[in-house]
Amino acid sequence: AQERALDRDCTTLSRHVLQQLQSFSADAQDLSSLMNRIALAGKLISRHLSRAGLMANVLGFTGEVNVQGESVKKMDVYANDVFISVFKQSGLVCRLASEEMEKPYYIPENCPIGRYTLLYDPIDGSSNIDSNLNVGSIFCIRQQEGIDDDGSARDLLQSGRKQIAAGYILYGPSTMLVYSIGKGVHSFTLDPSLGEFILSSENIQIPQHGPIYSVNEGNFWQWEESIRDYIRYVHRHEGYTARYGGALVGDFHRILFQGGVFLYPGTLKQPQGKLRLLYEAAPLAFLVEQAGGRASTGTQDILDAVPDKLHARTPLIIGSKEDVALVESFISERKKEA
Ligand code: P6P
């Protein structure tokens, strides 16, 4: 057992990627070093978050909202800059597209050789920071298709099936990195004393059904009737429980391990919902399909949705196959009646 534990401790993330691919090809090496860079970004952000916690406490006593808002904003900007500087040095990524930047950030020196684009939400759920609750980073990697000279990143406006890797980092009681390169979903836990992400679960499979439904019921009267029908159903039936943390990565992580469904439907104010397709919904959809689950806009698979712009939003219903299908059945039922 001790030998096994030692083997596990020596399975670093970059090693794990190469084991997955059973190849040492250039592409495999690229992916391995890209994942290593993601891990470095996660370590830097994790360390800063604990300090931000201290700063926020100190600043928080002043009760200055703008100061707290500033520290949260500083965190978003800090995390965004971490990804940029970590990937600048990678020599592999030509372009970074993030929720924090209107346009993609180009790394010209990487473009002739850099074949990848990193799409990411550096700190998702940052409003949770000032109440010391979990937040996350979401990322995915796509192949760069040609160099667009006008910086329009048109080649990014394609379906999520184009993703070659995706995952998230959950900054919770421990910092966990969950990823897939298309060969199953695997999780690593950061050992701060080692400064390494250590393999914790391999080939994670989401239960086919689970008890959890995760949605902001404060929007109940903002939704279409079909979503209200679903909520009435789970209220009436035994075996369901509501869990909502207000930060997508933590809410999704809970569903991945315990089963159930997370929903952020369209509302009257935002018919396309609040969550972004390219760097929030699509990476999680990639993961959940690899884990045997489903992700839907309500009418089509998230991975088939094609954005019309970089920061396009989408409704998101994601989790266990049976639970996503149940929500979709209420939506199609109402469509038939319409
Ligand atoms: P609401 C956080 O702001 C976020 O982008 C996601 O992390 C989270 O799932 C959602 O918005 C929460 O939105 O409207 O329920 O507060």
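^ 6-O-phosphono-alpha-D-fructofuranose complex. The CA atoms of residues 37 and 90 lie 7 Å apart. Residues 57-70 have pLDDT under 50 and may be disordered.
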